[in-house]
Write a structure and sequence with these properties.
alpha+beta, six-stranded mixed beta sheet
Length: about 270
């Protein structure tokens, strides 16, 4: 379903919210030829998401700041959040002589606390799991948001999935809702079964269509690398975003979904 389709009704006892995940490619287009962060910010804002998961987002880069016109004075996640998402968190993963990048969560709900868990395997790829705990005025229970960027090597991903399962099982009470989203680099589609089996997480596009969405490369998606997983939430619908303007704003296409959060004493119902 796309944004033009009327949204489904929300059951009594649930509150609707929208999530979006996108690999920002450090603010550059798919082939690193053009700085597109300003256009990317407008595209992200056009979705109207309450919760945004960002991967490969720049925290700092002094050389780019000096050489590239339009480079913001603030970290990229703050630049994107400005005036829309009142709360944000950043997890620094990769550090190099001129700066650093990592994962970020932008939220219209207050982020009560956050922890960035180092998920690196070896020294070649620095990865992280950014865990945010959100305080929601409509709910007695917090919402947990975990922004993920897994490794390119399959053996690294297996270890990182086990770490993610431990985080969800040991760090999040079973009655508190969870959204896990990001770039899983899972081109063989092996992560879904592992996460459902070890942590009860279900991927929203697989729930709705039988398989994850194609997201890479953004101009003509073939591989199913990006995901949105939920536990303890009702899926209202996945959102299919148009190819434009996204196809020239990153090497990954974004994913979005409308979810419903149980409030009060409501009982969670999983999508069929």
């Amino acid at each position: 379903m796309d944004l033009a389709t009327p949204p489904p009704a929300v059951e009594p006892g649930f509150a609707r919210f929208t999530v979006l995940t996108v690999n920002t490619h450090k603010g550059f287009g798919a082939f690193n030829r053009r700085f597109v962060l300003h256009e990317l910010r407008e595209a992200v804002r056009s979705v109207g998401a309450d919760l945004v998961f960002l991967q490969e987002v720049m925290g700092s880069h002094e050389l780019h700041r000096a050489r590239i016109g339009g480079w913001p004075a603030t970290p990229h996640y703050e630049f994107m959040a400005d005036e829309i998402w009142s709360s944000h968190a950043y997890g620094r993963n990769a550090v190099y002589p001129h700066g650093h990048h990592g994962n970020a969560v932008l939220s219209k709900f207050p982020i009560a606390r956050h922890v960035n868990h180092d998920a690196s395997v070896g020294k070649s790829e620095k990865r992280g799991l950014l865990h945010c705990v959100l305080s929601l005025p409509q709910s007695e229970r917090p919402l947990h948001a975990v922004c993920v960027h897994l490794g390119l090597d399959e053996s690294h991903r297996r270890a990182q999935v086990l770490q993610l399962c431990r985080l969800v099982n040991d760090g999040i009470p079973p009655d508190e809702p969870v959204v896990v989203a990001g770039d899983f680099n899972d081109w063989r589609c092996r992560v879904d079964g592992a996460l459902e089996g070890c942590a009860g997480l279900q991927e929203v596009f697989r729930l709705a269509t039988g398989r994850p969405a194609k997201t890479f490369p953004a101009r003509w998606p073939v591989l199913r690398l990006d995901r949105i997983y939920v536990r303890g939430l009702q899926l209202l619908r996945p959102l299919v975003l148009g190819r434009r303007p996204w196809s020239h704003l990153s090497d990954h296409a974004p994913l979005a979904a409308e979810l419903a959060l149980p409030v009060g004493q409501a009982v969670v119902r999983r999508a069929a």
